[in-house]
């Protein structure tokens, strides 16, 4: 579903990404970890069209999307969340999702991952199904600003789901969640993967990586220094000295 080939991105003299290659299959949750400043968010920015890479390619579902602007990438079925919450604080939880539906991709090309009949975009049934998915049904009428930080992160995932994406790219979705919210996070993303959605998960919480991911990539100073299982990662010497140690 996603292939990054030799992606390099520079900011002035800084090589934020140095020939990064990774892939995510349909139905897979792949972890992306690494120290602060390693280049994780930059890679998500390249994948989602926020940054054009200096060199290298991004393939989505077999098609070259390198350098396409974000709105075109979204229309093809790729959704992302950002490291900082971007919910609309004065709109209700429900409206946040309904509006994201309206702004999302061409409904005819969507897969029905929510298991509800496709009415017009933004209908109550679709929005309700999404809110249930992310565990926010009870809070639907409240303004988003009253949500806890962790609930806002879940709402962002709900907004990403509104386009029924084939690939979701999540930037530290559990950052700021309390223990209970973090423990429930796997229950939100694993069912999506079970339905064939590909998920790339940037995450510092290793318990979440262990719970959700069969494969993980480790980025350090813009380079991939490890790829493999989470259990192999925690005993890998290079990973331990660069990140875990
Ligand atoms: N827009 C930008 N302009 C200049 N430098 C940038 C820009 N964005 C990121 N960088 C630099 O690129 C490097 C990678 O940053 P990035 O935000 O991708 O790291 P990260 O792995 O997401 O870190 P964190 O875990 O703190 O979120 C850092 O050195 C950062 O300072
Ligand atoms: Mg980041």
What does the model show?
It is a single chain. Helix 3 (93-102) crosses helix 4 (124-133) and helix 3 (93-102) packs parallel to helix 5. The chain is of the alpha/beta class and 245 residues long. 34% of the residues lie in helices and 24% in strands. It has 2 domains: 1-77 and 166-245, 3-Layer(aba) Sandwich (Rossmann fold); 89-164, no CATH class. The strands form 2 sheets. A 6-stranded mixed beta sheet has the order 6-7-8-3-9-10, sandwiched between helices. Magnesium ion (MG) binds next to helix 1.
Oligomeric state of this protein: single chain
Content-based structural category: alpha/beta
Largest sheet: 6 strands, mixed
Shape: globular
What percentage of residues falls in helices of 4 or more residues?
Answer: 25-40%
Beta-strand proportion? 15-25%
* SSE string, helices as H and strands as E: EEEHEEHEHHHEHEHEEHH
Q: Could you report the average pLDDT, rounded to the nearest whole number?
A: 90
Total strands: the figure is: 10
Number of helices: 9
**Which small-molecule species are bound to the chains here?**
adenosine-5'-triphosphate, magnesium ion
CATH level 4 superfamily of the largest domain: P-loop containing nucleotide triphosphate hydrolases
Taking Cα atoms only, what radius of gyration do you get, to the nearest Å? 17 Å
Strand order in space, largest sheet: 6-7-8-3-9-10
């Amino acid at each position: 579903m996603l292939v990054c080939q030799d992606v390099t991105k520079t900011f002035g003299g800084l090589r934020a990404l140095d020939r990064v290659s990774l892939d995510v299959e349909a139905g897979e949750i792949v972890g992306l970890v690494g120290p602060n400043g390693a280049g994780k968010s930059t890679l998500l920015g390249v994948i989602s069209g926020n940054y054009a890479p200096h060199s290298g390619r991004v393939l989505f579902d077999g098609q070259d999307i390198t350098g396409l602007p974000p709105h075109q990438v979204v229309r093809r079925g790729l959704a992302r969340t950002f490291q900082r919450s971007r919910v609309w604080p004065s709109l209700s939880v429900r409206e946040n999702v309904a509006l994201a539906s309206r702004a999302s991709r061409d409904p005819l090309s969507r897969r029905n991952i929510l298991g509800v009949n496709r009415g017009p975009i933004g209908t109550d049934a679709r929005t309700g199904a999404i809110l249930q998915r992310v565990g926010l049904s009870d809070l639907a009428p409240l303004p988003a600003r009253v949500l806890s930080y962790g609930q806002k992160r879940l709402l962002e995932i709900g907004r990403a789901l509104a386009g029924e994406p084939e690939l979701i790219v999540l930037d530290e979705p559990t950052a700021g969640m309390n223990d209970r919210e973090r423990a429930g996070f796997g229950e939100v993303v694993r069912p999506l993967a079970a339905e064939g959605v590909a998920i790339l998960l940037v995450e510092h919480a290793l318990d979440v990586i262990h719970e959700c991911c069969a494969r993980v990539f480790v980025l350090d100073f813009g380079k991939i220094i490890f790829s493999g299982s989470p259990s192999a990662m925690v005993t890998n010497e290079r990973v331990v000295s660069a990140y875990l140690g």
